[in-house]
Protein 1
Amino acid sequence: MKATWSPPIRYIVLVILLILIAGLIYYTRVLLGPLVIAALLAYLLAPIVEFFVEKLRFNRKFAVPFVYIVFLASLASIPAIFTPILVNQLETIGNEILKILEFLRETLPGIHFLGYTLFDYDIPTDIQALITPLLEPQQIFGVFLAATENIAWILVIIVSSYYFLMDSSRLRTWFFAIFPYQYQEDITILYYQIKDVWQAYLRGQLLLMFIVGVTTWLLMMVIGLPNALLVGIIAGALDLIPSLGPTVAMIIAGIIALVVGSTYLPLSNFWFTVLVIGVFSGIQFFENVWLRPRILGHRLRLHPALVFVAIIGALVLAGVLIALVIVPIIRTVEILGRYALNRIMGTDPWPSPPIVPAIDSENVETTTVDKN
């Protein structure tokens, strides 16, 4: 006769395991964002890999490295293309900044009130005076530390996404095998429900990127910003990253406006830059307050207010990486919590037989899981 644990022992062991898992998640929480991003990147590249494997008959061991090398080369080409352009414009931008400061000093002269000086502009005579404070050792060391940390996270994302692509089926099989056999059916159903959530999230993000890119392109073209199409593409691509991405796109557009000006509006470069920044701010306000909550809330079946508060809260409390994935994480936790509550209450978590892909395959064929 096999020995079995009594109910109190089971509950004690379960509580201990949950505490250990929670502690592990807490101490490795900084890894969650990069790992989720790596999983999303692997998911985006997976259809391309499958095309090479299924249509072109590539061996997966060659298809994954080939697709990944092409992808990384494409990413590397972006700064290689734009860096020379930006370097050539640095001197012009510096001169424009000096002109703006001179304009401000002439327009808003120093005002003395109760012993305080307002609008007292100390304008350096050359660009070197502007740059010198940035070259102090503590500033350079701080930039070096920040760059090193970012490079480390980028390496984590790149390496992890590569192995997710290469070993996705084995990782899935290993994950299912962790659980007792009688629960593997439930785990399979949960897996595909959660997978649907993340697919819906990615489709929503792609739709947002498209809308923001097209809207930015059209509005920049209307006000006469040179290279409006390129700015729209950049704005759409960077819209994936909350807060940081739109800010970078706005800075790029502002630099173009400051250096080149409008193609037809009778505005100085300074005021045209103000107009461009205002238009960008309006687009982002509309997207963050109304468009993003509506689209993601509809696709993930969450209230738009919850989506808005979750993203803003994640930006403030946890940073950009967590804000990027907080919405699908909330929906995932909801699915897992509902399942756990049904099991605790002794009710069926699947009131109607769910339809999921066959357990041993992710092909188009589906099977109805009979829970009775």
Protein 2
Amino acid sequence: MKKLIKSISDVIDSHENEIRENIKASDSSLSFYKNSIHKIDNVIVAMFRDHKNRFLMVFSNREDGIIAEFSGEQIGDSDTIARKCSLDEHNAKVLRKHFPWTAPVSLRDRKTTIGCGDRLGLAAAGHIAAVKNFEVTPVLAQQSIRELDLTGRTYRQVVDDATFMVFQCGYKDGYGADGDHLKTIEDIDVALAADMPMITLDLSEVMNAAAGDWEQDKIDKAYAKLPPAARKRIEADYAGRKFSFGKSIIDFDAPTARRCAVMYLDALDFADKVHRHLVSRRGAKFDLEISIDETTSPTLPAHHLFIARELVCREVEFTSLAPRFIGEFQKAIDYIGDPEEFDRQFRVHADIARNNGDYKVSIHSGSDKFTVYPTIGEMTGMRLHVKTAGTSWLEAVTVIAENDPVLYRVMHKCALDNFNKMLALYHITADITKIPDVDELCDEDLPGLMEMAEARQLLHITYGPILNDRTIRPLFFEAMHKFEKEYLERLKVHFTKHLTLLGVPPKKNK
């Protein structure tokens, strides 16, 4: 460490680009992230790692000032002072104060966005390595309450982990943070308190989805209970009308209008309430996504149109909307269904979005849906948001399978033991009896399991039990630290494939 401090002393008055080229860690167990070296008021802040951890190092030629704001262990007694700082909540807050580009921002003005779920707090560097080459903006911090419960993290930790990764990469193009699938204002407030500008509002528990299957006479009876003014407006705005958007035509008969009113009006009133709450908390600096995808039946085009028009009528500022599309968007695997029928129906959804507020179509469980990516990108004109989550976790699992087969086998068996329990939380149709016995596979065959749909889904939905296993957890994170470069490279390749197949244009000025 003394040699490192001496190296810093020699260059502390230089421009940060020169510092990046000229400092040397010297100690073979210590290394730094070149793009993390930043200078402010003659203070150098950089991200380092040793054989166990990543941490911040802050260097200054004075004890007061910015260095004093960071908490950590002070090292050395030379003219240059060094402070070794852990990656904790306090130091993340100081980073965001002095390097504002490390804080998440609203992305309502960004055309193409991708949600990069990071259940480990380790994936953002790989996400950034991919997205920086494309005309796309990442949502690097994205978690649902369910994911928080299963991983033992908090929204504050999710945002802080993204802050440190953005600083580590020197990424200054902006990123989002999404409180995903939130259903109550109480949960939304937790995400807002962690400085998450994006809220995905899940309307599944306030909409009357069951009414989609009711007989018409039951719909009519429920509709008759609505206030007269509401019924009058619904009939005037929808019943018997024909809506035309480009090549898409939607005939809205009176029974459909009544059914939509019964199914969605209460949910849309709640969306209005949430919107007003977001405005009161963040002004215009938020992104509201409306999620109606958590249903058993696909969202009919007429229903999508009703929801969009009603949101506009209520002056709800929503950035994106997630319908439930035809076919199966199951976790961790490609699209299940007829691609041609998907194309036909998706075109209508894209036309509705383009002509009723020009919001982004959001694709939930969007990772690895390679078959339909070209359609999604082309028909939305790249005005879209794609959500991924488990695919980054599976890339980590693949890294373990490639580099630590003993640990992988333990994780795989833990997944098998917990599979049935996790089916209560995730909808998949994998037949795990097709998965070979890992004890009968050679080490070199283990990574191939992550190319098998059944094994991918097995490992995808059991991340919680695996990460909460007291024996597995420390070994897993130790391995992920050791194989950090391998993980980054896998994520870069994997997300480059996603963005390329979607048709996201390459960035012209990298």
Protein 3
Amino acid sequence: MRLVYFSPVPWGSFAQRPHKFVDWFHCRFAGRVLWVEPYPGRLPRIEDFRRPSLGRDFSSSASPPWLRIIRVKAIPLEPVPLLGEVNRWLWRDVVSQIATFVEREGALIVIAKPSKLAAEVVGKFAGVGTVYDAMDDFPMFYSGLSRWMMGRMEAELLVRSNAVWCSSQALRERIRAVRSDVVFVPNALDRDMVSGDSSVSGSGSNGKRVFGYVGTIGAWFDWPWVMALAHHFPRDEIRLIGPAHVPPPNSLPRNIRLLPACDQKAAIDEMRAFDVGLIPFSVNELTASVDPIKYYEYRGLGLPVVSTSFGEMSLRAAEPGVFLSHDHGDIPGVMEKAMRYCDTEKHVSAFCESNNWQRRFDEAWESSALSQG
């Protein structure tokens, strides 16, 4: 069996759910993969021209021999009626390549982000099994006409797909209004990445405790909460690692270190130096459906997690090693509880066994009607 994967992120980005899924697919079915790179699905904004490119390849390596990458030419006018149809002429070669790829043998199409191209391919190859994997509430990342169009394309995919998966319980509840058979497939961790010595070193230079975050600093990042944390713990270090698309509202306190993005292996090594793993996301519609992968990675390393009460994290208050902050005033108490927490190797091992990508996708596939085909 072969796989056509419409990705929401480039192959060269930090390894995420899409990368892990295609790895799982190839391991399970020994099939080739056609990875379709994302293209602009909204109208351009001024900040797009000011945003720096990462300029580095954070994927595990160059694409493996069993995976081929297709880059899609598109004018950023998809949400505009009629004008967006111009892209169909630019896609003719892409559609032709997909046709050649899927017609040679059995195939599966997985769409991890709605787009007109994905909808066109699903319609053209109606006999090919299709999964829509709702990784995020994509319309909420857009505004105006772009949000309307994204919602419309998602609604079309929900009806046309043979199976629908989602990464959070909030998404499941929303999608159930259209598809009662939606399958809840939470995020997970790479067991190989966190295997070995599960202990964390913590305590940075001069005995300072290290409170760390690894990930993109985007519109969902709660800068005021982080600044309050720095104020409450001036003698400790707050280490933020990742591309900063949204700068801090004020000059950074001396105990906040803003470091560049790194590859996944280096990121895991950085996490091992933390005393507490942070997930400081704003609580709003944008994060209501988010299940952060860094939660699994932190816990897979035995790190206590301090998070704001957003999305899927808001449902984990009773989970071992998870400490939720509801406002700036409770930060000192929450952090002190987290720093007193001590995990056991047995519990960390059990967590990794229950929350790894292979097990997650195996269970999702077996629960899908496509597995019977």
Protein 4
Amino acid sequence: MTARYEPVIGLEVHAQLMTRTKIFCGCENRFGAPPNTLVCPVCLGMPGVLPVLNERAVELAIRAGNALGCDIRARSIFARKNYFYPDLPKGYQISQFDRPICEGGHVPLGDGRSIELTRIHLEEDAGKSFHPEGGGEQSLVDLNRCGVPLIEIVSEPAIFSAEDAYSYLVNLKRILEYTEVCDGNMEQGSLRCDANVSLRPVGKKTLGTKTELKNLNSFRATRLGIEAEIARQEKVLAGGGTIRQETLQWDAERGVPVAMRSKEEAHDYRYFPEPDLPPLLLSQQKLQAVRDSMPELPAAKRERFQTEYGLREYDAGVLTDSAQFARFFETVVKHFPHADRVANFLMGPYLRLQKEQEGDDLLPVTPEALAELLALEKGGTVSPAAGRQVFEAMVRTGKGPADLVKELGLEQISDDGALQTVVDEVLAANPEQVAEFLGGKEKVLGFLMGQVMKATRGKGNPKVLTPMLRSSIEAKRG
């Protein structure tokens, strides 16, 4: 909140649905294919073709509505949203307008608060325009994305800070991933966000004039873009100016919102019911079948991790931060049934290495391979320190832990005879420290243990060495 003005933010999130085919035709729903290869007469808007609704897309929209606490309409209507742009070959987009499939609902912020939703509706995606550098006035169009199934999740204008907008997106993305509705990949465009931002005098209830901010392709960009637009509007108002209702594009390089065009209203799109699609009717049996198929949601999984695995609340929160990470944890535990040790390793060496690689993707190590490494460590084959070295090598090379232990020469020494020889040599070389320990200086034991580990190049088994070192020193007590 600023000194004189209160920001009011509403978010529109487009989430691509994880279907095998597009929403109204049989073309593949797949990212990364060569331009204009995943197209057919339907998604190219050829005359005389008819759309056929993808049932799986409907199921995923219902699933999202269930996860977000929406009311699911038994009867919804598709509409044509008319506008002209090179990446929209039909000249209109099939969407839903006044009768969407889902109404109401909310997105939790993770701190006990939640943001109310207006609606969730089904629609098809448009293509994508490219403006190559050095191409002059040339523009290129890839229509592979035309007809990809989307849901648009529209919040109420009930977000009052950029930080809350950030939390909203993080928690929404987590729910969509958990329910396998959307993969949440913002870099590939499968999750996209537009922000409507306005300011009003503190204490007033009437909304100010809003602008729509586009090109927010990451959570960080969303937060920075909203903060910049709030600051821009405040500066205009403070100078006695007025806010124009317009669409802005976030320029991440310069850190400023840039005007694109005047902001459209619903009547500008000339919505009317889609004549080629009948009303979408959902039976109670269908709605119940989707409810019965709902996967475990983040909050429920977090609570289960605490009760089933005995994890602390914080640890359970970290491990359930993403659906992938939670699945990885549980798979490791199936093969190595020591949940506390698995959790400690994942939250320590695993996440540290993942952060160093500057990515959110899982590291290229299978749960089974990590379970094998932890079993080697628990069995005394490698020390925890050596285990971390082996793990890093597993990520780099893709090799198995047992092979790497041998290859790197990190197998832990647990043989009593070999270790006793090293202990005797260290004690003989450090008579002053032995005398200090016998005189009551317990801390000296750490120094002596360090010398033993140095002599064994870190391979000595501490569980064997600690009592051996103590008993060897006590034996020198005259």
